[in-house]
């Protein structure tokens, strides 16, 4: 397998609904493994997600997990997950789903550099940037 770079998002106990939400947004195959399945049955975090991976038909891979016991959860940080391309209908569809129930900081609209761009934070507190460029011929 070739090397790849993909986001890995930490959650504070809501990794399962967040990853299921992203599956609704992007489609694809979602695999979820709990702490209980990984050797911690009977613990308070047994049903929390130790590792989740979503692989989509568009070739995206998004990973996420609940913060393990003993580690500090640090929400947000200084990052955004960025989606970009020239398939306007696909990217607008992602935008509509990601921004629903979240907060829009920059509306998805034409910007001074010519692309359509927007920024939002989804209902799980994850920041997203969407950039729609001109169609490549």
From TrEMBL:
Species the sequence originates in: Streptomyces dioscori
Protein name stated in the entry: Glyoxalase/fosfomycin resistance/dioxygenase domain-containing protein
CDD domains according to UniProt: PhnB_like (cd06588)
PANTHER family with a match to the protein in the record: PROTEIN YJDN, PROTEIN YJDN-RELATED
Domain spans labelled Glyoxalase/fosfomycin resistance/dioxygenase: 5-130
């Amino acid at each position: 397998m070739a090397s790849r770079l993909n986001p890995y998002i930490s959650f504070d106990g809501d990794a399962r609904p967040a990853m299921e939400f992203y599956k609704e947004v992007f489609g694809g195959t979602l695999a979820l493994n709990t702490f209980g399945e990984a050797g911690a049955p009977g613990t308070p975090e047994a049903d929390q997600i130790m590792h989740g991976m979503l692989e989509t038909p568009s070739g995206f891979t998004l990973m996420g997990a609940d913060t393990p016991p003993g580690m500090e959860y640090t929400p947000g940080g200084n990052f955004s997950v960025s989606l970009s391309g020239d398939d306007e209908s696909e990217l607008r569809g992602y935008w509509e789903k990601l921004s629903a129930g979240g907060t829009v900081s920059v509306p998805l609209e034409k910007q001074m550099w010519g692309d359509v761009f927007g920024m939002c934070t989804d209902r799980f507190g994850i920041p997203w940037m969407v950039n729609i460029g001109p169609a490549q011929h």
